[in-house]
Design goal:
Two copies of one chain form a homodimer.
Chain A: H1 20-28, E1 31-35, E2 40-42, E3 50-56, E4 59-64, E5 70-76, E6 81-83, E7 93-96, E8 100-106, H2 107-115, H3 118-144, H4 147-161, E9 177-179, H5 184-191, H6 195-207, E10 211-215, E11 218-221, H7 224-230
Antiparallel strand pairs in A: 1-8, 2-7, 3-6, 3-8, 4-5, 4-7, 9-11, 10-11
Helix pairs in contact in A: 4-6, 4-7, 5-6
Chain A binds a DNA duplex through residues 146-147, 183-185, 193-197, 199-200, 202-203, 215-216.
DNA sequence: CGATGGTTTGAGATATATCAAACCTCGTGG
DNA sequence: CCACGAGGTTTGATATATCTCAAACCATCG
């Protein structure tokens, strides 16, 4: 009985490419780790020592300029893969936004294992291609969208990605209501805006009846149609 | 004697993972194609039918909003891979910026071939991971940098990526002078700015002695140090 | 209850966009 | 050979979205 046997992301993470025996081998080089909100798993520019799978929680990937401006360049959810295999350095830090559990490997071990398991590499390739698609879509937002469009797009994406993926195929209806894993400042860092601008857009969308804000971290989408239009 | 035998990117593209026999098999499902500047190889939102390797030339990957705003989300050079294997649709158009030659596969054929050649998939994974890194770095530029910083960063990146990679390892000195494969409008579409702002930054950098502009498409980097500082 | 950290609101400053005109460059045809 | 026109580029004047700075506000927790 290994940790993998009870792993909740067993069927969705890249590990799903492996059979029982292979999984046992992978398990033997892995280590579980818990992270509290704000705790970092890796730092920008650091030698790429670790890679990991997200079991539980939400983490941000972020870079910054010398003078302290920050940009969140990615957000990862359960079953997502973290880190830079087959490379020497990580271009961004990885920090937990919520309580999180990850399944960690040293890059050395993981690289070696992956090279011997093409099915695993295939899953990783698929995941990486998907992440690249998503990242490029985000570039349109950062390069060309207004503050209002950015915030609306952001809320829609959140409502889609925060769905608790039960093992059974709960067929991915976007949420009408959810708790943001981000502070206002972090939302600003995702969208390339300032905290004040984000706050103003939130209140505007609320006053226009498109969303509701029951509490600081909670969002309810009242008029999804309208929000889609607002998202440009 | 196949087309691959004389291919100039033979040793740099993902094909370098294959031996002579495998290469012959790959060659049999490939097709060469020439593109003139402005010609498109795929369109945004289209079913993902083709993938390709760039042999020669520079191409842009771009998306846009309904109301006509455009954002270039990637630029590909010789030996780069184009398209979305293992996926159903392409999220961005692919258009030649210069005369270009590509080596095209149907996605069906390529997917099948790749699944049987792990070494090829491994190369593709490495390339995709690198592209993801580069794209995320670009997000910092789009989200947090000023117009001046963007243009300076752009020129530095150009000077690094336009190096003619000879077969022998000409060890990648960035160019002091090069011809832009972009119009001013396209530079604006890469940087998320307007054409006027780009133009003004070019003339400013020139007047400050950091660069020279011998002609519309040519750029000479006079003070690389200064440009790096300017890039933020 | 008061302190603290995050958030919202307000007033003003500023970088970039927008609109418009002048300016090159280069190819075409008289 | 020169005049012309067209497309792209630069320059200028103004508008505006977003940022900046500052204060008020609000939940939370000791």
């Amino acid at each position: 009985m290994t940790a993998c046997d009870t792993c909740v992301v067993r069927n969705r993470a890249i590990c799903s490419a492996l059979d029982a025996g292979e999984l046992a081998a992978l398990n033997s080089i892995s280590r579980r780790r818990s992270l509290s909100p704000g705790e970092s798993l890796m730092w920008e520019g650091e030698d790429s020592i670790l890679v990991a799978n997200v079991i539980d929680g939400v983490l941000k990937l972020s870079t910054g300029t010398e003078d302290g401006r920050e940009q969140i360049v990615g957000v990862v959810y359960p079953s997502d893969f973290i880190g830079r295999p087959f490379g020497s350095t990580t271009g961004h830090g990885v920090t937990a936004l919520t309580e999180a559990h990850v399944c960690v490997f040293t890059r050395r071990d993981f690289d070696a294992f992956a090279r011997e398991h093409p099915a695993l590499e295939h899953k990783l390739l698929q995941r990486t291609l998907g992440e690249l698609d998503r990242t490029r879509r985000w570039m349109l937002l950062l390069g060309r969208k207004s503050a209002g469009e950015r915030v609306a797009s952001f809320l829609l994406e959140m409502s889609e990605r925060l769905v608790e993926q039960g093992c059974q195929g709960t067929h991915d209806h976007p949420l009408a209501r959810f708790t943001l894993p981000f502070s206002r400042q972090q939302v600003a860092d995702v969208l390339g805006l300032t905290i004040e601008t984000v706050s103003r857009q939130f209140t505007r969308l609320k006053s226009e009846g498109l969303i509701d804000l029951p509490s600081r971290r909670e969002v309810a989408i009242v008029d999804r149609e309208g929000l889609v239009i607002e998202a440009g």
